Amino acid sequence: MEKGEILGFLGPNGAGKTTTMKILTGYMLPTEGQIKVDQLDVVNDSMAVRKRIGYLPEQNALYHDMGVLEYLFFVMEARNVPKNEQKKNLSYVIEVCGLTSMLNKNIGELSKGFRQRVGLAQSLIHHPDILVLDEPTVGLDPNQIVEIRNLIKQIGKGKTILLSTHILPEVEVTCDRVVIINSGKIAAIGTTEDLQKNFKGRDKIELVLKGNQSHLFNEIVNIESVEQCQVSHNSLQTSFIMEIEKGKDGREYIYEFVKNQNLPLLELKRDQVSLEDVFRDLTITEQQS
Question: What is the four-CA torsion angle of 266, 269, 275, 280, rounded to 10 degrees?
Answer without folding.
Answer: 80
